[in-house]
From TrEMBL, chain A:
SUPFAM superfamilies per UniProt: ARM repeat
The species this protein was found in: Winogradskya consettensis
Gene3D superfamilies, per the entry: Leucine-rich Repeat Variant
Record bears the keyword Membrane: yes
Protein keywords: Membrane, Transmembrane, Transmembrane helix
Name of the molecule in the record: HEAT repeat domain-containing protein
Pfam family, one: HEAT_2
Domain of life per record: Bacteria
Transmembrane segments: 6-29
UniProt GO molecular function: oxidoreductase activity
InterPro entries linked to this entry: ARM-like (IPR011989), ARM-type_fold (IPR016024), PBS_lyase_HEAT (IPR004155)
Automatic annotation (TrEMBL), chain B:
Assigned keywords, A-Z: Glycosyltransferase, Membrane, Transferase, Transmembrane, Transmembrane helix
CDD domains: CESA_like
Pfam families for the chain: Glyco_tranf_2_3
Transmembrane regions: 17-37, 348-370, 390-412
Species in which this protein is naturally found: Winogradskya consettensis
InterPro entries in the record: Nucleotide-diphossugar_trans
Single Gene Ontology MF annotation: glycosyltransferase activity
Family: Belongs to the glycosyltransferase 2 family.
Region forming the signal peptide: none
Listed name of the protein: Glycosyl transferase family 2
Highest taxon, organism lineage: Bacteria
Ranges for region Disordered: 470-491
Amino acid sequence: MLELFTLAIEVLTAVVVLTAAGIVVVRLYRRFKHRKQARLAAGPRRSLLAFVADNGEEGSHDLVAIPEDAWRAAEPHALALLGKLRGEAHMGLVSVFLRRGTARTALGQLRSHSRVKRARAAQVLGDLELRQAVPELCRLLTDRHAEVRVVAVRALGRIGDPAAAWRIIASLDRSDPIPSLLASHTLVQLGAEAEVTLSAALDHPQARVRAVCLDALGLLGATASVTRIARILKEDAHLDVRVAAANALGKLGTRSAIDPLSLALHSSRPAALRAASAKALGDIGAPSAVPVLEKLLDDGAFHVAHEAAHALRRIGPAGLAALTGRGSNGHALEALALAQVMREEKTAVPA
Amino acid sequence: MIEEFIRDALRWTDVSIFAYFVALNSSYLVLIVLAGLEFYRHLRRIPFAGADDMFRSPLTLPVSVIVPAYNEGPGIVAAVQAMTALRYPRYEIVVVDDGSSDDTFEQLRARFDLVEVPRVVPADVAYTSEVLSVHVARANPETLTVVRKTNGGKADALNVGINLARHPLICMVDADSVLDPDALLSVAKPFGDDPLRVAACGGVVRIANGCKVIGGRVVDVRMPKQWLVRIQVVEYLRAFLMGRTGWSRLGGLVVISGAFGVFRRDLVVRVGGMDEDTIGEDAELVVRLHHHLRETKEDYRVIFVAEPVSWSEAPSSLAVLGRQRRRWHRGIAEILSKHRRMILNPRYGRIGLVALPYYVVFELLAPFVELSALVLLPLGLWVDAVNLEFAWRFVLVAYGYGLLVSLAALFIEEVSFHRYPRWGDLARGMTAAILENFGYRQILAVWQVKGAFGAWHGRKAVWGTMDRTGFDTPDEPESDLVGAGSVHRRG
């Protein structure tokens, strides 16, 4: 027994000393590596900044001629810069990346066995906003790893090719779909040209798909789809989809949305739908909705009464007058007080 | 005959205690290795994590940051300032002043120009105190809300905050916490990446003592001046950063610190909010979420993100540390007692079969075993049940293994996040890992045993107070501030 203990002490001592030494070695190695990387990256970083300062007109040859190890050290900085640039400077830097073969390498890595490499490649192609990569990125939407699919969707959003809309929508219709909010945001990034596809997808049998498309249409300002969205608000079998329709109508802000939203406030409708519809009417800012919203101030469901009061506040003078008339109502008092604070703050800030 | 029996019993007890220490430290080591793997995975994914996309998206889920505060006058303004500067697209801050007897509210009113407003407080979750008044910041009425209420305890304050929270995610943050600018973005990100399954996400809490804090942000990470706090830094690394990351990887995370955690509001409301009868209300909520979601057979995840972090002030005196640790251990005892039906119950999956039994054996009972060893080993020596040769080897292996575990945690920290850039701080960390074994662990065990007895004897729990010094670093020469700008950060 004692021998065993003695052996354990010897082994422990050795491992403790090795671990302590390991900590020191790791720190020394990192410092050495960091200095080396900083030294390598210094030149390319200066060239990059000069290139950007010249709006991408001068210096591209210098950047392309940078040796591979120095470029690798500066590449994270260059990619970060890419996300911050617009216009000529952005196009110029993209062209440098293309000439250095970054896109070709990334396209090749989209078929790597490593999911991290596939995801990194998709990220780079998105940063480069490379339209030629869209078919390959769309293929990644069915990747077996969720994290790769997510990066591919984000990349497609940055590229902004509306041709990808249908593939993104299709990727929502699976047992392990991409996150809904990410899909909505990406579809919005595809721009107004994606509206037709989104509008057509409102008849998709999958409720999640319809909700995502409604969110995207609302953010895109697709006023041509108001009638279809109003129909969904009235008829859809899923509450989440109807709530999404109410939110979308609020964002679209057209007059034709007021009647369907007012109808959705009826007491027979679920509280979540009524609250969303009240909020949407506030977003539209329609004075004609004041009477119907005022009635909701006494609603038993907290969120319905709360949203109605704040919708009246956002409508402006007509809504505020209605709130003032209901002086003893707690929600009305709350909304009035907030309006007062906001008014004071506005008047305090010089124009 | 009886003497021989006692000697045999003592000998076998000492051997059993030794085996327990080996098992305990081995389990820590396994968790640390798992944490190391998780950090490696995390760091490889940073280039495509998409934090910037999340920040720019108009659809990112908004968050209500709830800050319960009780006598937090010295640090509350710095903490709220830091929160108003967080990098997140849409969030509100709800500070709940739980009947403070100091100038917590006055500090806030003066700094943020608070104005009283009427507010209807929904009763989504029950609370027992009385809301006295609600205030908003004149410049940002929809961003900062301060509630004054009668004293009802931390859980009650959180419940009031949950009721007033307007957003689908709620983030509970201690009033003495300073968050890294990207902290909220990182902790809320899993909800965007996996919205159907993520129920809660915890963030790391590190110790702010000794760090330079300017404008509510930690700009220079340093080891604290007192050895008592330095030891806690190592302890936090080992138990919180590594331990919880390891459990998260195993799918068995049952503790999310009340100092920094994000939850889905609908789920918190569904399970009834914070339990006001439990002093460890943060961990209790997580266990209750597991309980509920397992019973309803929902596919869910409770996870932990290791970076960025929330910085918190640690006790720098034995008296305050003692109160804190009694409270923490009492919390563990209460939670395990309240949810005892989950323990070893296959219905609750790895939570019931692995995580909770582990907490019983290696968290709740550990201080009892430690104290037993302190009594029984000398006793064994005295009655000749064990000889001196065995005893000193026993002590050396037991504590040496503990030291190895702490060093392993420091090694993983150095490889992954290396937040302490100075060589001196590294040496202090390693020294603290050694010193921890001389007195600190033993006195900790005494406090923990007292805490557990407090729970079992049903003594009234109170919201512990801490003498805070606050964070804001006094005005320093310009050169110091310039130095602070070159903070070491992971590249």
